[in-house]
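User: What would this chain look like folded?
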Amino acid sequence: MTSIEIIRAGPLATLQDRGRFGMLKHGISASGPMDGGAFEGTGAMLAHLGSTAIEFTSAGLSVRVDGTLELAGGGGAFAAKLNGLVCDWPLRLDLKSDDVVEITPGVQGNYGYLRFDCEIDVASVLGSRATNVTVGLGGYDGRALRTGDVLSFGAPGKEAPRSRTESSDGPIRVTWGLHADRIDADMRADFAQGVFVISDKLDRMGVRLTDLGGIFAGLQQLSLVSDAIVPGDIQILGDGTPIVLMRDHQPTGGYPRIATIVSADLDRFAQMRPGTEVRFQPVMLDHLK
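Assistant: Here's the prediction, encoded as structure tokens.
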């Protein structure tokens, strides 16, 4: 049986498939890849593909192989070595026993993916192998991967689908949110024209933004009934801090949500590193067709 051993894991390296959909009514977010386009594009480099990937963060990952395995790596801009020799990135490798793949930080991106030609042998929980570390659900014992973990492979993968198109550069597009009309017009205009910065407080649950212009500093506390959240919602916390809710978001929230990042741009937003400036461009649904 083929397996890989994790010999170095950065924080929040997890197993992810496309996600656990249809569970939000039970209080469970979909999880899945932070950069869905990179997840799919990496898989498209293989002829046959297991459904589950290792998602790693900007610190990288190293694995040792026992058996034979086809592997593809992509997402972000990382550096990679096979048995100490530099590889191109993205990468596709035919591996044999004792091969070591090392992935180290590169110049861009928060998330990368390893895809395989076989299925990772972990249990499906509520229809998915995706990990939600916030609630300890799915993946490898419901937690992030760590040094010494061994992942075994089972069934051969299915024919790999074609890669989907990723979004272009430019401002991150948003639609006005559920509570936009509770925020005055001047503040909405300042949001649409403002510059924010990705803070160092980010994970799979959310990304806090630094509000350079103090746009929301004067926002009065709104007493809202909690309602359902979707990935990409931009929520304004009680102290005026904007936070973008991501794949492991809480199911409901009671803070005002001014806008929602369109799904076509959420992957690109997820890859923005701390210190990166970001602007938001409100659009109508008709503009996305």
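The first strand starts at residue 3 and ends at 9. If you want, I can go into more detail on any region.
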